[in-house]
Amino acid sequence: MANLQTYDAVIVGGGPAGATAATDLARRNRKVLLLDRPGRIKPCGGAIPPKAIEEFEIPDEQLVAKINSARMVAPSDRHVDMPINGGYVGMVDREPFDEWLRERAAGAGAERRNGTFTRVLRDEDGTALVEFRPAAASDRNATETLRARAVIGADGAMSSVAKQCVPGAKELPHVAAYHEIVRSPAPTAGQGLHDFDPARCDVYYQGKLSPDFYAWIFPHGETTSIGVGTERKGFSLHDAVDQLRKETGLDQCETLRREGAPIPLHPLKTWDNGRDVVLAGDAAGVVAPASGEGIYYALVGGRLAADAVEELLVTGDAKALASARKRFMKAHGRVFWILGIMQRFWYKSDKRRERFVSLCDDPDIQHLTWEAYMHKRLVKAKPAAHLRIFLKDMAHLLGIVSPWQKAPVAPPESRTTD
Fold first, then answer.
1. Distance (Å, rounded) from C-alpha 51 to C-alpha 36?
2. Residue 53's closest CA among 41, 44, 61, 42?
3. Whole-number Å distance between alpha carbons of 122 and 142
4. How far separated are the first and last CA of the chain, in Å rounded?
5. pTM for the whole structure
6. pLDDT tens figures, 302-321
7. Which is nearest to 292 in space by CA: 225, 208, 244, 247?
8. In this structure, are strands 6-7 and 9-12 parallel, antiparallel, or unpaired?
9. Measuring CA to CA, which residue among 261, 241, 237, 235 is closest to residue 253?
10. For position 403, what pLDDT does the model report?
């Protein structure tokens, strides 16, 4: 084993988390290898908030569309339009976007290899040995091995690195997601519920399309993602997408590709092995409940994993690896907790979904929702807005009002304070 190349870090998985970790470590002059399985495209709505664009220096040319509103569709087909006043949500196409992230890592000094991770072994001195099957090998059973002072597992929701190395990873619950990429039709905005607006994302909260999550239509400029997710086994994602396409007229659009993959539901309780392996992105379970948003959290997770590995390499203290999860949960754990409660309660039945969408018609809720999404923090709203939202939520939770009925609000004198 003495002749094996030794890297400061071998990163398994070249999505947003892995590529970001590779970039950050390479910029610190670490010897980094980024191992990625070619041909992998994750089904994804492709939405990234301005916070991600700013924090991770994503150039405007990587955005295939800018979304300025969302439409929430209830089981009854009643809908709520939620404009983003003064802002936008960026949309990316994951195939070129992920490759751009990997190329940025290579430009920073990371070495790229295409291959499939197989296992982590140990050298005589305990150093990690990363074994993989090279993509270019003529013998499909051929493997190569590299030495690594640290390993970052960023290989998705069903992470092989996590299952082999991190306790509890095998029990990671997930939503099955499936989407079809179609050629975008001509805009038909203003022509009814099922019109097509290239600057609007449509989200369907209907049990017929998803019994416990949602379905979506997300424009990506020249293409559009039409998808659905569910945790319920036996539910046909393909049939749901077919139905959504027929109902919206998008069945007439050319289908360019079909993709499916698991999306994790909860952050794992442990992200490292207490020695030299740490997880990031979907492998760590960092996809927001209720919304299914993952790109921003993957970028953050990759950066935090890189920081943790850097500390390990400098100090030799394996406890440094646990800082990735601690820092992530400190910054985003409360948001994940709140979104998890929302998903478990509001997505449980069509009766509750109807109430949920009707609540989204409220200007206070729309404002706080967009502020929290765009800037990735819980908004410290003015007291009157919090009071109004609390009263409206309670009215719906207790069934005091019917869906789409105006709930009680704070007294007029309170409303003048915000």
1. 26
2. 61
3. 19
4. 67
5. 0.88
6. 999 999 999 999 999 999 99
7. 225
8. unpaired
9. 241
10. 67
d(CA 265, CA 281): 12
Residues 101 and 62: their CA atoms lie apart, in Å, by: 10
Q: Which two tokens stand for residue 55?
A: 């924090």
Going by C-alpha positions, the residue among 267, 319, 312, 268 that lies closest to residue 294 is: 267
Compute the 3-state secondary structure of the chain and give helix, strand, coil in percent, each to the nearest 5: 35, 25, 40
Strands, sheet with 89-91, edge to edge from the N-terminal-most edge strand: 47-48, 89-91, 65-67
Tokens 């539901």 sit at which residue?
265
Residue type, 186: A
Contacts for 57 with CB less than 8 Å, ≥ 6 apart: none
Note the Cα 343 to chain centre separation in Å.
15
The model's pLDDT over 267-305, given as tens digits with 9 standing for 90+, comes to: 999 999 999 999 999 999 999 888 888 899 999 999 999
Please, are residues 363 and 385 in contact by the beta-carbon 8 Å criterion? Answer: no
The answer to whether the beta carbons of residues 294 and 208 sit under 8 Å apart is: no
Degrees to nearest 5, angle at CA 355 with 225 and 360: 60
Length of the chain as a residue count:
418
d(CA 215, CA 134): 37
- Tally of CA atoms within 13 A in the half-sphere of 160 that contains its CB: 13
C-alpha of 296 from chain center = 7
Q: Which residue has the tokens 């953050």?
A: 300
Q: How far is CA 60 from CA 15, 90, 91, 378, in A?
A: 19, 9, 10, 26
Residues 241, 226: contact at Cβ < 8 Å? yes
Q: Residue 141 class from Cβ within 10 Å (0-12 exposed, 13-18 middle, 19+ buried)?
A: exposed
171-189 burial by CB neighbour count: b if 16+ within 10 A, else e? ebebbbbbbbbbebbeeee
Contact call for residues 111 and 87 (beta carbons, < 8 A): no
- Is residue 150 within 8 A of residue 8, CB to CB? The reply is yes
3-state secondary structure (DSSP) of residue 122: strand
